[in-house]
Amino acid sequence: MQPNKVIVRFIDGMIMKGNTSDFFPNKVRFHLNRLDGKIEEIDIEILKAVFFVKDFEGNKDYQKKYEDTIHGAGRKIEVEFTDGESITGYALGYSPDRHGFFITPADLSSNNERIFVVKSATKSIKFL
Length: 128
What we know:
By secondary structure, the protein is mostly beta strands. The chain contains no helices and 10 strands.
């Protein structure tokens, strides 16, 4: 199994980058093999989101545009986090009684391939 490149954003604003092979949306913890070689056990409930990325660098000057239509990716959804950030994407498996859910960002040019949103870090979730 190929490890996933992820950027982990915590509720307190801290960020960690690395790879994971044991992230599952129904588990409360996973392991992050950080870029410096250290392995961390990450508790989902202290996170904002897990960003599954194309590369670790990204483009800090990139202006997000959530205007792409992605057929077969589920219903269009807008997520507003408690820190004020908003992301628009598509969700196949959103359920309000789960601790989190995946979205595919409606910006195919972004560095994010998919995002696991931790529900406790959201202010609002609405279908568009």
